[in-house]
Amino acid sequence: MRPPVPVPTLSRRAKLVLGAIAVLLVLFTVIGSLTNVYVDYLWFDETGYTEVFWTELQSRALLFAVAGVATGGLTALAVYLAYRFRPTFRPMSLEQQNLERYRQSLEPRRGLVLTAVGVVLGLFAGFTAQSNWETWLTFRNSTEFGQTDPQFGLDLSFFVFEYPFYRLVLGFGFAIVILALIGSLLTNYVFGGLRVQTPGQKLTSAARVQVSVLLGIFVALKAVAYWLDRYGLVYSERGDVFTGASYTDVNALLVPKVILVFVAAVCAIAFFANIVVRNFLLPAAALVLLLASSLVIGVAYPAIVQQFVVKPSANEREAPYIERAIEMTRQAYGLDDVEYIDYAQETTTDSEDEAVDPEVALAELRNDTETIPNARLLDPNVLADTFTARQQIRNWYGFPEKLDVDRYVVDGELRDYVVAVRELNSAGLSENQSTWINRHTVYTHGHGFVAAPANEVVGGSDGGEPSFTTGDLPVTGDIPVEQSRIYYGELIDDYSVVGAPEGTAPRESDLPGSDDRQLNNTYDGEGGVSAGSFFRQLTFAVYFRERNFLLSSAVNEESKVLYVRDPRQRVEKAAPFLEVDGDPYPAVIDGRVTWILDGYTTSDSYPYSEQMELGEAATDALTGTGTTALPNDTFNYIRNSVKATVDAYDGTVTLYEWDEQDPVLQTYMKAFPGTVEAKSEVSEELESHLRYPEDLFKVQRDILTRYHVDDPISFYEGSDRWQVPDDPTQDVEEAQPPYYILAQRPGDPEATFQLTSALNAFQRPNLSAFVSASSAPESYGDIQVLQLPGNTPFRGPGQVQNSFGANQEIRRDLTLFDSENSNAVLGNLLTLPIGDAGLLYVQPLYVESTGEGGFPLLQRVLVNFGGQIGYANTLAEALDQVFGEGAGEIATDSDGLPVTPPDEDEGEEAPTPAPAPEPAPAPGGGGQPGASPDMDEAVGDINAALEALRDAQRNGDFAGQGRALEQLDAAVEAYRAAQAAADGSGTGGD
Question: How far apart are CA 635 and CA 630, in angstroms?
């Protein structure tokens, strides 16, 4: 037999080296963690939210300590007692002989092993528990809802705030008992208290007592769990199509749960009695009874009732419980006060197309003075490149991928604008601008606010461009901006070091001077954390891993460090109890650029309410394109409870209580006193810019697709279900985003700023409803649903988009615009209510040069109403094509872009979709069947005009762009005329 190889031993020097390395690793880890905490504290201190920092830290520390001590301490105590009362003498057996070597190894180190077990389990439990700090805080500061649930008669606060905490404590209770039981069994086995293979008694008296007590506690906790399970029925999914206690839950499970409570209590008593009786037969019999009872009355009986009583007539049996679910789900998602209007009923006819009366529609259109004049022609999701090309000014400035829509009162008139701020874009810095000095101390901020009326484009030589009524540097225009420097924004993802002693030359790049040299500036705002002392500089050097904090002269006694500069991240950090909407937007408030954000309070414990995934519910075709996706947390209650602002210059974060009736927010306000200001503190000017939030609206419209139904039987059958249509302008099958518009809702005296969405019939492309949520201060949050007649085929967005694509004239132009030198870009397909007549679809069509520096320009407007299509250079012309001459006079662009000449064969009727359209000719169509020399020449002229347009855009030649656009229009008309002539000759003049 080969002798065992001895374990190599380390020399004293090796041990010292390894020990030093271990100490250094621990030291660096501790220093790094403490630095992170300290830098966090400095940020909270700068923003005035230290109450949040300390409350969260204390709550986490409390839960960590309690859970860690309870879990580690009680488990270690169980192990210690098992060892303490181990048998002095153990019977000689092969089993005990095999265990002897383990006992000999553990005996000298039993204190160390016991401590290690307690510490490891305690740390694990502590880290797990501290993440539930919000559950503890809401339990401790619970606020009543003032409403009881329909089954148990308890205030809803019990389910939202208390029930989750009881479940948390119960879960840790089970974990501690199981760990203690495992630890005691292993200890007893190693030290002879438990003898599995030895004949005779298997447990010593001490081991029997310990095991009996632990099992008794476990079963007692099970009795508590059965009692809490009764309340957990309000979250049951047994009803298939609804959430909450179902017929089976109430009639076949509620009482059995109570019975199981008493059975479990009897079992616990039996285990405790085993301390005296000293016979496991009694507790074993009780445990068998518990298992049998839980299977028979807790599983089998409810299953039988569900299968043979409920399913044969589920729509009737579940009706009262479905009514509960409908009511509670509407309340949970803020949809219990929706205004439903039966829309376009009186204008219906027996037409085979859409059921609208043209005369009534024309009368409504001519009377409309609010919606059509404000029809938005600028798509904020398309025009970022256009804003960049026309308003970037410097290479280190930039605009977000998605612009925003807001409204302003200018010259006494309410108008909606596409707005953006000219932010610092670090990605735009050249290689020599990207040194540490330049990146962090010179290029520190953006500059300027840009706005263009959403219903206007420039005509003439600059045709198709937004009309920038506010912009340039210094900022000028119809929206007065006093402080336009942007130190906090969506594109700023790095820190900056600002500030310098008085008399020092300004370092930060600021405005362009008159001689095209850059003027500099020194930040004098309240934002930023002081880095004047050596200790602070050392702290930031460690935190950012940058030695220049200690070596560079740019960091001095007056320096401040700006970090966490994204508005959304600032609000999330200041209010960790909120979910923040993914689309902050800028507004000019009192002359200062201010970011406005929406904060949501959520819960996953609202009774009878349908559970959803937040990120999934708030996702649409544009999520992630200039917006931030929300975390995919489970929830079934949501409120837009907080409006937040972030000053773009000094970073000040202000939270306002917006929903004064939200008990969840009131609970957090108790936990974090002084962090949220009263709603009365919202200024009138700020209130005029508040928008109904997009992510909340997307969640609510998803719920409305199912819960707009009042009748429980119809709800169960799903016969009147809706669905959110896919975005027809995108290649991906994602939900169409909601759109902000300025329009007059049926019943309203004037136009209001609102968020809108179309809804289709379920798994059908036809339109079923139009939802809008008001953002006007006097009617903020009012949700209106226009329900269309269910027996008429109103076209949904996808059908309208298809009809545009099938139209021969539109399809021909799309083919021409999509060439080697340009791309056709379809803008957002807006749905506009026209009085009581029906819904008008409006869509802008942009053309973008594919060359360097190309950007989208509005070239056409597409309109659809009642199946009739309008397609022209302007909205006014397109409306004339659909409704007749003069109908477009109310459109803002009635005197804007050049008028589109009518085709020779075009009569009074607008172009309509061809039933079987011919393939559109391709550019450069020589050799194509039916092509003529005139068509080839026109195609060549089109390509030449597009090339000239691209060159003019690249060179910033506005006049050249105008000439190129005129040449493009002439070439397109020449092509149309040539094609018409070729078609006429080819068909014998038909």
Answer: 12
Q: Name the nearest CA neighbour of 416 among 479, 365, 360.
A: 479
User: Helices 12-47 and 567-574: crossing angle, nearest 10°?
Assistant: 100
pLDDT digits (tens, 9 = 90+) for 415-436: 999 999 999 998 888 888 889 9
The HSE-up count of residue 968 (CA atoms within 13 Å, CB side) is: 28
Q: Is 956 exposed, middle or buried (0-12, 13-18, 19+ CB in 10 A)?
A: exposed
DSSP three-state, residue 492? coil
| pLDDT of res. 91 | 61
Q: What is the dihedral of CA 942, 947, 953, 958, to 10 degrees?
A: -60
β-strand pairing of 339-342 with 783-787: parallel
Peptide bond into 474 cis (omega under 30): yes
pLDDT recorded at residue 908: 36
Among the listed residues 919, 974, 911, 988, the one whose alpha carbon sits nearest the alpha carbon of residue 944: 974
Q: Residues 272, 278, 282, 288: is their CA dihedral positive or negative?
A: positive
Of the candidates 520, 557, 753, 562, the residue with the CA atom closest to the CA atom of residue 647? 562
Give residue 575's pLDDT.
96
Tell me the three state secondary structure of residue 98. Answer: helix
The confidence score (pLDDT) of residue 174 equals: 96
pLDDT digits (tens, 9 = 90+) for 27-85: 888 888 899 999 999 999 999 999 999 999 999 999 999 999 999 999 999 999 988 88
Q: What share of the chain is helix, strand, coil (3-state, %, to 5)?
A: 45, 15, 35
Give the pLDDT score at 460.
Answer: 54
Spatial separation of the C-alpha atoms in residues 924 and 947, rounded to whole Å: 14
Specify whether the backbone of 464 is left (phi greater than 0), alpha (psi in -120 to 50) or beta: left
User: What is the pLDDT at residue 909?
Assistant: 38
Distances (CA, A) of 239 to 187, 234, 283, 322, 610: 47, 11, 37, 9, 11
Report pLDDT for 355: 52
Q: Specify the DSSP class assigned to residue 553.
A: T
- Report the DSSP beta bridge partners of residue 416: 407
- Note the residue count of the chain: 990
Pairing of strands 783-787, 868-872: unpaired
Instruction: Please give the single-letter amino acid code of residue 51.
Output: E
The answer to whether residues 912 and 868 touch, using CB atoms and an 8 Å cutoff, is yes
Distance of CA 658 to the CA centre of its chain: 19
Predicted pLDDT of residue 365: 74
**Distance, CA of 174 to CA of 167 (rounded, Å):** 10
pTM of the predicted model over 0.70:
yes
CA within 13 Å, CB half, 119: 6
Measure the CA–CA gap between 131 and 168, rounded to whole angstroms.
Answer: 11
Write down the pLDDT at residue 92. 63
Is there a contact between 599 and 560 (Cβ–Cβ < 8 Å)?
no
Residue 904 pLDDT: 39
Under-50 pLDDT residues of the chain: 1-5, 7, 346-352, 896-930, 985-990
Burial bucket for residue 1 (CB in 10 Å: 0-12, 13-18, 19+): exposed
Residue 870 burial by Cβ neighbours in a 10 Å radius (0-12, 13-18, 19+): buried
